[in-house]
Amino acid sequence: MNIQITNTLVLLYLISIKIYSQSNDDFQLIKYNTEDGGTIEGAYFKGGDDLAVIFAHGAVFNKESWYFLNRRLQQQKVSSLSIDFRGYGNSKKGDSGSLSYDLLGAVDYLKGKGFNRIAMVGGSMGGAAVLTAFETKMDPTIKKVVLLAPAGGKGIKSESIEKLFIVSEKEGMVTRVKQIYDQSSDPKKIKIFPGSAHAQHMFKEQYAEELIQTMIDFLIN
């Protein structure tokens, strides 16, 4: 192998290392323990110190599925934490099977970093987990919640939490989502998009950018 080819390969290798490291510069992998003895891994995206957003994924997704939104919020100087629920990635279950403890642990983690304004975003299974967490403990630091077609749960009775429900008009959960919305106290909004895509699958639709901007505007304003 001649020197020119060797130097080219070395340069390409160094470029690949730089690209890989840059792709991880915007977040930090963290772990925290839950009240029932679980261990949860999350990706913490540092933005500002005012608001932090917790992302809760659906059953066929993981924490990485939210990274594009983590980064969009980071550009707006908003911090966020995307978690893997117990049984996903490196997260381990505790003594119970309740995902609510994973989210309550995330709240405690962010409170430990000094945040007193926290929002939650949940899709499908993650949305149901958010609702269950509110039934378990209503933490006063929670100021906003975005629910994409939550797969079950009860309405949010707190009047101190701003609520945004999102669902597709022809998807299987639409009637249940409307019921949860009706059961919830003001302030609340519901946004219904065309089609039948469910929860995080909505980000694959042609209206994806409108959906993303709707969520960001709600969270930061």
List the helices and strands and how they pair.
Layout: H1 3-24, E1 28-33, E2 39-45, E3 52-56, H2 67-75, E4 79-83, H3 100-112, E5 118-123, H4 125-136, E6 142-148, E7 162-168, H5 174-183, E8 188-193, H6 208-220
Helix pairs in contact: 3-4
Rg result: 19 Å
Number of strands: 8
- The CATH architecture classification is 3-Layer(aba) Sandwich
* Molecular shape: globular
- Estimated structural class: alpha/beta
Number of domains: 1
In words, what does this structure look like?
The structure is a single chain. This protein has 221 residues and is α/β, with parallel strands linked by helices. The protein has a single domain, classed as 3-Layer(aba) Sandwich (Rossmann fold), CATH 3.40.50.1820. It has six helices and eight strands, in the order αβββαβαβαββαβα. An eight-stranded mixed beta sheet has the order 1-2-4-3-5-6-7-8, with helices on both faces. Helix 2 links the parallel strand 3 and strand 4. Helix 3 packs across helix 4. The longest helix is centred in the first third of the chain and has 22 residues. It is globular and about 40 Å long. The termini are far apart.
List keywords for this structure.
single chain, 221 residues, alpha/beta, Rossmann fold, 8-stranded mixed sheet, disordered N terminus
Task: Write a short abstract of this structure.
The chain is 36% helix and 22% strand.
